[in-house]
Every structure is written in C-alpha cells, then in structure tokens.
Amino acid sequence: MVRMLKLGALAGLAGGIAMALFLFAVGEQSIRDAIAIEDAAAHASGEVHEEVFSRGTQVLGGMVGSIVAGVLLGLVLAVVLASVRHRLHARDDWRRAMLVALAGFVTIALIPALKYPANPPAVGDPDTIGRRTTLYVIMLAWGLLSAWGGWRLSLWLRERRTPEHLRLSAAVGLFVALVGLGFVVLPGTPDVVTAPATLVWRFRLASLGGAAAFWSVAGAVLGTLLVSRAPDRVASPAPAAVP
Amino acid sequence: MIPLEERVAVQPLPVAVPVWAWIVVAFAAFALYALAMENGALLASKAEAVHELFHDARHFIGVPCH
C-alpha cells in the first residue's frame, strides 16, 4: 500500500506537470486577455487595485499549484485504484489505472465543469464566491455519490450474474440519471457573464483540456509503473489460478 | 466472451487498503480544499495570500473564484 501511494504520488506529479505546462501554454493566454479587460474596466471607473503578487509570481504560483494539486489527486487515484482493482475486469493494471483515471476525469473534472464551468478572471462577482463554492462542492459531491451508486449497482448485478451488457448499461444509466437529476435540481451560477463569449469559451476548453491532460497522464504513468515495476504482490496480477 | 482461463488469470488479489490510507485521502481532499477553494472560512488572514498565489491554478482547475 505504501508503494502504491508512492507510485500514485509520482503519477500525480507527472500529471500535475502536464497540467501546469498545459496551463502555461494554453490557459495563460486567456487569463492575460481577461486581466486586460479587468484592468480596462477598473481604469475606466478610476479604481486603483493593489495586487498582492506580480503577474509573474502568479503564473509561477499557478503552475506550482497545479503540480501540488496533481500530487494530492495522484494519492487519491492510487487509494481508489487499490481498493477497486481486484473487482475491475480489465486485462492488466495499466487498463485498470486508465479506467479509474477516466472515472476521475468524468466525476471530478467534467461533471462539476458542465454545471458550473470554469471562468477566466473578469468573470465572477466577489460577493457570490461563498455561494458559488458551496454549489460547486455540492455538485462535485453529488457526482462522486452518483459514481459510487453506479459502481455498487454494478457489483450487485455481478453477484446476481446479470449479463455484462445489461449490468454495464444499468450502472452507467443510473450514474447518468443521478448526475442529470443533480444538474436539474441545483440552481445555476448566480453570476452574469459579461466577458466576451469567445474568451470565456476558450478558457473553459483550456480548463477541461488541462484536466484531461492531468488524468490521462496520471493514469497512464500509474498504470505503466504498476505494469513495468511489478516485483511484489501489490502490483503483480494474482498468480494464475487456472484449474 | 473472454475464455474462463484468461479471466481467472488476470483477476488480481484484493489489496488490503488500511484505514490510514483513507486518512491520507481525507488529508489530500482537505489540502485540495485549502489550496483551491479557501476564501477565508478557515485560514482567515492568510487566505488572501494563498488565494492570490494560486489564483491562476484556481481559475484553471475551474474552482469558483472572484
């Protein structure tokens, strides 16, 4: 388990670096454009806004933050993979790691982003930050709960020897239905977006791209480490118990 | 349909996931919260510095931000 966590942290580090590079190469352009709009608006209204950190520090801080977040998510990925891998029907640990990473991308990144998409600076009312954070966390938690519900249903149906096509359809169906319910029940974001639509759209795509970069790299690296360095019981498949 | 032999061969043994591993997960979740969503509820005076330093990452990860 300790080894699994180490590999998870390593995979998360690799994924975090991928996300940080993606942020630097793709996301920063939109952030720069958005800040220019913010500054222009502040200038027009005669407001003087003292920045705590320079832009350079913030860009670096953003990359460091991405990497730290990556390592933390890598630990979560490793523990979840360890707890489900003996029940995941896949050919090897690389595929299992990729499946769990895909689940992570969908539940942790995609679902909250569909309901409350990422916004560049210049969008977002400071007065509603508390409410927006609460809604975001509720959506995130609901997505995780939905995924857990689908997973439990899948396990339950497997015990009852339901054919695979029905089992997977039912499990994914329950998951999608629960997530859809959350989308419908939860209120939308309270903020009005006044920034140009193309800028906001570009930033949201970049944000999702960064999440995809993280989860795919973290999953692939964790899977590769498990497959290639498999000297002990933790990583190697069970000895072939062929009758 | 995968042949039975193959299926038996590839199913790994369960890994014991001790309680402390889930505590690590809880810690990671808390640290992510502090990193990404903290706006002053817990860290009070330090929150703004944390917020501003990781500002770009917050926006990029998609967490609500001012």
How does this structure look, described?
The complex is a heterodimer of chains A (243) and B (66). Chain A has a domain of 158 residues. Chain A has 243 residues and is mainly alpha-helical. With 66 residues, chain B is mainly α. Helix content of chain B is 59%, strand content 0%. Chain B starts with a helix and ends in a 5-residue tail after the last helix. At the A-B interface, helix 1, helix 2, helix 3, helix 4 and helix 6 of A face helix 1, helix 2, helix 3 and helix 4 of B.
Largest sheet of chain B: none
Look at the structure and give the mean pLDDT of chain A: 90
Flag low-confidence runs of chain A.
233-237
**Low-confidence parts of chain B, pLDDT < 50 over ≥5 residues?**
none
Any descriptors?
A: 243 residues, B: 66 residues, 59% helix
Give the SSE layout.
The complex is a heterodimer of chains A (243) and B (66).
Chain A: H1 2-44, H2 55-84, H3 93-115, H4 129-159, H5 164-185, H6 197-228
Helix pairs in contact in A: 1-2, 1-6, 2-3, 2-6, 3-4, 3-6, 4-5
Chain B: H1 4-10, H2 19-36, H3 47-53, H4 55-61
Summarize the structure.
The complex is a heterodimer of chains A (243) and B (66). Chain A has 243 residues and is an all-alpha fold.
